[in-house]
Amino acid sequence: MSEPASRPARDGDAAAPTIQTVQRAALILDAFTPAKPYLSLNEITQRLGASKATAHRYTKALRAAKLLRYDERSALFSLGPQVLTLGAAARAGLPIVSAAEPFMERLVHQVDETVVLSVWDGESPIVVRSVDNTDRVIRISVRVGSRLDPVQSAQGRVFCAWLRPEEVAGLPRALKRDPGLRAEIEAVRAAGVSVNVPAVNGVRTLAAPVFQGPALVGAVGIVGTTASIDPDVHSPMAAALVQTAKEISAHLGTEAPTPAG
């Protein structure tokens, strides 16, 4: 009796193990957050839903790719340096970055201060572009990739004003703890511009929202010293910033960005 012919392998069958490998690697990397930057092998194993031997095999491969690092003293894993490289590449490829750049360059020449662009990464504003080619002897440089305080920074207040409170980690609790914070956020929404008062270490920032359609997609800010930036949200510099933010929004396809109620 002849044996039944074996079923031809399909492309989907051959690819399934590879897809599962990628999915598992992504699960491990996705487990790390700003609030939880270090994980043990047991935590990774639990996240993966597999055996400890399987988790160890994946962490070993991710370490070889420099996507994870391991501290032998604490026996904890953290994201590796290659993640920073990939993150920088991803941020550089955001449409808002290329759209905003010429407007930011023009604003720098107009106000002679550093201009930065931030986007919301799910937990806080993160700087994706910084233009600091001012004519000043002393200039303020802001590192791309810098994570800003979601409640205290001028850019953070912009996101607090236009995102739902539950989208900003810690905001509902902060609103209960500080009754004046709600009024300050409402003032940002009404003026269309935010300022970090009090200034930190002599640095003052103004920030305004950038929209794509009805959605808030970023915040553009002017960074300088308390001596060079007027905290008045109705100052000429603030007006120039708001105008620039509106022009970037228009370039992204927003006809008339309006604050959310």
UniProtKB/TrEMBL annotation:
One Pfam family it belongs to: HTH_IclR
Stretches assigned to the IclR-ED domain: 82-254
Domain of life: Bacteria
SMART domains linked: HTH_ICLR
Example GO biological process: negative regulation of DNA-templated transcription
HTH iclR-type domain location: 19-81
Keywords: DNA-binding, Transcription, Transcription regulation
GO molecular function: DNA binding; DNA-binding transcription factor activity
Native organism: Trujillonella endophytica
Matching InterPro entries: GAF-like_dom_sf, HTH_MetabolicPath_Reg, Tscrpt_reg_IclR_C, Tscrpt_reg_IclR_N, WH-like_DNA-bd_sf, WH_DNA-bd_sf
Name of the featured protein: Transcriptional regulator, IclR family
Keyword Coiled coil (UniProt): no
